[in-house]
Amino acid sequence: MSMDYAEYVQPELLVLVPILYLIGEAVKRSELLDTKYLPLLLGLLGINFALLYEFANHGLSEGSLWTVLIQGVLVAGCAVYANQIYKQSKKPSDKAVTVETTEPTEPKE
């Protein structure tokens, strides 16, 4: 199954995904904000960046505000999702099988 991201996120706003990801990493490492608030911060930043883009290129109208809101949340969600994929790829697999070997013992008589 193939997913075409251009159906959901405007291609020109995809550049925000790595930008938001890097901002999230910087905030996390600086410990300025508790990590549980990072998705909220990235969402607000994504909406603001999408608003700047929309205003600079198309102006603002009633319909464009919904577009800005949706696009901002989507690019922030992609950044958080990318972070989760990275974190999960570093974890060892839960399905790893460990085999313990012991020396065979002779039966007692």
Notable traits:
single chain; 109 residues; mainly alpha; 3 helices; elongated
Notes on the structure:
With 109 residues, the protein is mainly α. It has one domain. The chain contains 3 helices and no strands. Helix 1 packs antiparallel against helix 2, helix 1 crosses helix 3 and helix 2 packs across helix 3. The model has no long low-confidence stretch (mean pLDDT 85).
Q: How are the SSEs ordered, and which strands pair?
A:
Blueprint: H1 16-30, H2 38-58, H3 62-90
Helix pairs in contact: 1-2, 1-3, 2-3
Poorly predicted spans: none
Q: How many strands, what sense, and barrel or not for the largest sheet?
A: none
Order of helices and strands: HHH
Our count of domains comes out at 1
Helix content: 55-70%
Distance between the termini: 63 Å
**Global outline:** elongated
Average pLDDT rating: 85
Overall SS class: mainly alpha
| Total DSSP helices | 3
- What is the gyration radius calculated from CA atoms? 23 Å
Count of distinct strands: 0
